[in-house]
Amino acid sequence: GARESVGAAPAPVAAVANALAGASGGTVVVHGVPQSWSEREFGAFLESLGATRASYRKKARWPYGFVTFGALADRIAGEALLHGVSVQGRVLKVSEAKPRGGGKTGADGVDVSGMSAAEAVVAKANANALRDIRDVICPLWNVKYGEQLARKKEIVAENLRAITRAVRNASQKARKQGRRFDVEWLRSALDNDKLACPLEGIVRSPVLDGYRNKSEFTIGPSAANEPTVGFNVGLFREGVTAVAAPVGCRNISSTAKFLAAAAETHLRALAAQGNGLPVYDKRDATGFWRLFIVREGGMAPESEHGWKYWLRPGVGPPKPEVGNDGKPIEANDKDVTPFEYPDEEASLPAPTTKDAHSEVMVMLQVRKEGYDDETIRGACRGMLDALEAAAATASPPINLKVCVVQFYDGLSNAAPDDAEIRNLKTDAPSEKNMDVIHESMCGLRFSLSATAFFQVNTVAAEALYRLAGEWASPNGKSLLLDVCCGTGTIGLTLAKDVAKVVGVDIVEESIKDAFVNATLNGVSNSDWVAGKAEVAIPRILNEYKSLIKPEDGARRGMPSVAALDDPDMSADEDTEAALQHQRTVLNQTSVEYLYDDVVAIVDPPRAGLHRQVLVALRRENRLKRLVYVSCNAKTMADNVIELCLPQGQDGNGGGVPFKPIKALALDLFPHTEHVEAIMLLER
Predict the structure, then answer these.
(1) Which burial class, exposed, middle or buried, applies to 561 when counting CB atoms under 10 A from its CB (0-12, 13-18, 19+)?
(2) Could you tell me which of 365, 372, 445, 605 has the fewest CB atoms within 10 Å of its CB?
(3) Residue 234 CA to chain centroid, in angstroms?
(4) Which distant-in-sequence residues (6+ apart) come within 8 Å of 313 by Cβ?
(5) CA–CA dist 64, 278 (Å, integer)
(6) What CA–CA distances, in Å, run from 346 to 258, 303, 458, 502?
(7) Whole-model pTM?
(8) The dihedral formed by the CA atoms of 267, 273, 277 and 281, expressed in degrees to the nearest 10
């Protein structure tokens, strides 16, 4: 199964001399690879050719493999080595890998006619390194906000249609198999543009500029090879390592931009003098300075309005009429009035220093390997002095309350939870309960450590949490499950309206923050559990089982899935007699239960909820209302399908299915393509 012929390694390519500093090798697809090869066999093949690469990927049954190169010279040499090689009777072909999701790159539209293969690779890499940073960080920066809202609402709408399609298809399949049940909400959904439930619009962001309270900047070389504090203009696998300053990025706060510029000025001054430590270079994983993170608290403007004030219809241009053949009817251009999106550019002022409660934290991330402690301390101290001097001259002044440094030698920027963090001012290990700033939201104060999760758009998140609370509508004796609770923001805002809040999150540091925030706000009716939700939720429900008031018999007798053979949903005489007996027994039993019902709010990461969590939530019959908050409408749809899909012979297998009641889109990230969604499910 080895190769049958190998091309000769080329001489150094002159084209690489024209490459910009921020251009790297990128990723290629190698076609014609034996399907039977494992990833290890593919790697051994690359090794036998002498191809220098950063990484590779190949799965069994794939007739292709991916190879990512660190340097452009390695990419050009590697392509020459691979292209035209015969393996098991098939000739390998090499092409550039397309971006995931079919997105655009800076190389799109580059004219490579008349260039050699090597020159074309360099030209495209250079174009990527010179991308406008706004197109990367806030790609909708030049789109009217009214149009942004319409686009984002449609993303949520399409995923509501996906729910309808999945449940309809499953119902039809079940009917063919002789399982006779009907989904009562499906008929109205099919009559309402196939939306699983009414989509009541989109809640716009009250703030449009500088709304991020946390900005994570990369420290690295620019396309011109200058130390830069900003953002990568592309991905390493796309052949880009260049960093550009956040000029024109509307989502980044003026405070974060100011401090990033101060750090950059300091690093460039040292480099010009021939002093200082190098910035991190992803191509060979060398250098000292890696990340510059700015976190802000107490700077967001206050909104005197509730979420309904910011609710918009999010209407886009009308859909074209469809003829009897199902094809759009072409309209006479003279009769068509151009669609105008509503003007939504007005907003609350951008966050900035307001008073003594406005606080800023800076965390540096550096690479420790190869540097002694004295050198590290000196470099960090110099950066601290530069930042403090800049903050003192800012207008308005910046209260630089906390400065810490995180040490991490790994390849990616995502350091583990136990990575060492030290206070820059004292050089002592960072005290999590001391090295914090505070943010106010929904009438509560939240303590934010360097690594704690918190929504980056404070004012919009406040609208989201108040909306979630209204839709959950717990009573004073509800047990509230806050699933994927993070630092406890949603649960704590609702604690005053429920008997008990139990929050669950897989990140132990977030749970520690939740306990701190509960104490900070005097919330005593809460508990916070660290662990996988799929493990914790069944255990919690079992633990509280005897404390929750049993279902009322009458409600248990009204499933949300109606048998087709019983369209009136009326119980027979024997069932009615049994239910009446149960009510009599319950009325004669003087048991005092702590909780009337169970209400759940889930706010999972982009991957959605684990299937075992969905199973546990569906099986808990006393859970009648569930609010799903999502940062990924696609995985929300997948999860809601699991919760609403009839199961078993009568549709109620695994627990009575939920019914979609209503949904809203929310824009927490203006000028980007991200959209939040919230959905209410009942049964």
Answers:
(1) buried
(2) 372
(3) 18
(4) 201, 202
(5) 38
(6) 24, 14, 18, 39
(7) 0.82
(8) 70
Burial of 399 (0-12, 13-18, 19+ CB in 10 A): buried
Label the pairing between strands 421-423 and 400-407. Answer: antiparallel
Q: What number of other Cβ atoms are within 10 A of residue 659's Cβ?
A: 19
User: Annotated active-site positions, please?
Assistant: 631, 676
Cis peptide before 396 (omega within 30 of 0): yes
Contacts of 589 (CB under 8 A, 6+ apart): none
Q: Where are the beta strands (DSSP E) in 269-354?
A: 289-297, 311-312
> In a 10 Å sphere around its CB, with 0-12 CB exposed, 13-18 middle and 19+ buried, how is residue 151 labelled?
middle
Taking the CA atoms of residue 394, residue 233, residue 290 and residue 509 in that order, the dihedral angle to the nearest 10 degrees is 90
DSSP state for residue 668 in the 8-state scheme: S
Report the length, in residues, of the chain. Answer: 683
Q: Tell me the per-residue pLDDT of 430-472, one tens digit each, with 9 for 90 and over.
A: 987 789 999 999 999 999 999 888 999 999 999 999 999 999 9
Find the DSSP H helices in 394-488.
458-472
Each residue's pLDDT tens digit, 629-663:
999 999 999 999 999 998 887 777 889 999 999 99
97 within 8 A of 87, measured Cβ to Cβ:
no
Q: Which of 520, 457, 452, 461 is nearest to 487 (CA)?
A: 452
